[in-house]
Amino acid sequence: MARFALRLTADDPVSATEAASSFYWLSDRARSSFYSSVDPYLSDFGPVPPRNVDLVRIALTALAADRSVHRAGRGSNWNQRHFELEIPVSDPGPWARAAAALQHVLALLSGDTWELSFVPQPDRAPFTTAPLASAPARVVLLSGGADSALGAVHSRRHLAEGEHHLLLSHFSNTMLPPIQKHIAAEAMRLVPGGAQEHRIVRLSRRTRRIDGTPYPSEPTTRSRSLLFIALGLAVASLHHVPLWIPENGFASLNPPLGPERLGSLSTRTTHPAFLQDLSAAATAAGAHAVLENPFARHTKGEMFQQAAGFLGAEKASAFLSATHSCGLTGQRAHSIPAQRQCGVCFGCVLRRASFTAANLRDRTDYIAPSSDAAVQDWLRRSSVEQPVRNLLRRGIRNRDLIALDLPHTYPLREARDLCVRGLKDLRSLYP
Fold first, then answer.
1. For residue 44, what are the CA distances in angstroms to 129, 135, 210, 361?
2. CA 404 – CA 335 distance, rounded (Å)
3. Where in the chain do CATH 3.40.50.620 domains reside?
4. Helix, strand or coil for residue 271?
5. Burial of 320: CB neighbours in 10 Å, binned 0-12, 13-18, 19+
6. Max alpha carbon distance in the chain (Å)?
7. 3 state DSSP class of 259
8. How far is CA 403 from CA 18, 33, 121, 363, 406, in A?
9. I need a labelling partner for 312 at 20 to 30 A (CA). Which of 15, 146, 156, 167 fits?
10. What is the tens place of the pLDDT at every residue in 72-97?
11. What is 139-292's CATH number?
C-alpha cells in the first residue's frame, strides 16, 4: 500500500516519513514538488469555482502518486497497486460523499485500487483577477495528437458568427509545446473565422522531492489524462461551457489486443464509461463537469477521410503529419530526439493505418525500421504490430465486447460496428 498527501504549505511540521510521502504544491513555485505554470488555487486562470480547483488537486495528486510507485510486472492486472491519498479541498464533505465514485473512476483509468480522503485547505490570502473575457463557445483539449488537432479544426468549422473557442494544452515533456503551438496556428490558418485563444499549462511532478532526494519514476502514468481533463474543466467552469475531448471512438472503446492487454496496459482516456462516471462523480461533488467527445462514433481513419474532404488531400496530409501520436518513451536513451515517433506503438500503428485508410500521404519521420541493432531491439520489444495482426485474424468476438465494460446506454451493436470499422482501418495497413 502506498500513502501520499498533497500539501499546499511547507510550514506545518510533519515527520520525515510524512515529508517523504508528501507532494508540495506551493505558491512559491521554485520550492514546489511540481513544475507548474499555475498556482494551487488556479488564480492564473481567473476565479475558478472552488470545486473545480479541488478536482485539479485530486487529479494532480493521483498522477504524482501514479508516477511514484513502480509497477512490478505484467499480466491482466499488471501487479495492481493500492493507493491511499489525502487531498486538501475547499469543503471535504461533498468530496467525501463522492469518494467511492471517484475511486471507481481512477480504478477504471489506471487498473489500480484507490482510497481517497479529504482535509480542509489552508487559509489563503484574498486575490483579485482581471475581468473575465467573453465566454467561448467551448473549451477544446489540444494535446498535440492528430485527434485533438482535428478537434480544433472541427470546432472552428462549427463556430457560429461572432463565436470563438479556447484551446487548452497541457505538457510535462518540453518537446510538446512547439507542436501544440504549431497545430493551433495551423487550425486557425486552415479554417478562417472566429477568434481563438490558446493556453498552454505546465503541471507535472519534479524528479526530486523538495529535500533533494529522487522520486521513483514509473513511466506508464495512465492517470495523466485525468489531470488534463480536470484542467480543461477548470477553464470551462469559468463560463459554464462544455469541454471537448476529441478522440476517435475506436480507441475510446479500447478493445483488448489480447488477454494480456487489459487494465493499465491500454488507455481508457475517453472510454464512454470513464467520461460518464467522471462527469457524474464530479457533478455530484458540485464541480462543473460537462464533457463531450465529438468523435465518439468515428474511427480515426474516418476522421482523416473527413479532413481530406474539407481541407484537401495535400493540406490534410501536411497538417496531420505535423501532429504527435506516439506513446513510447525512451528515445533519448538511444540519442534519438524525443519528438521522433516510433511507428510501432498502438498510437503510431493506428495513426499509420488511418493515413493509409484515408489515402493520405504520411510524412511522419518514424524511427522504425532502424539500422541500429540496439534501437531495433528496443522497437521490437515495444511493438504492438504482432498483437494487432492477431486481433485482425480473430476479429471482434462477443467476449471482447463484454470486456469493453460499456455503460448500459451504449448499445453493443453500435460498439461492434465501430470496432469492425476500426479493424478495417487497421487492415489497410496489414492486409
1. 8, 17, 23, 41
2. 38
3. 139-292
4. coil
5. buried
6. 63
7. coil
8. 39, 38, 40, 35, 8
9. 167
10. 765 444 578 999 999 999 999 999 99
11. 3.40.50.620
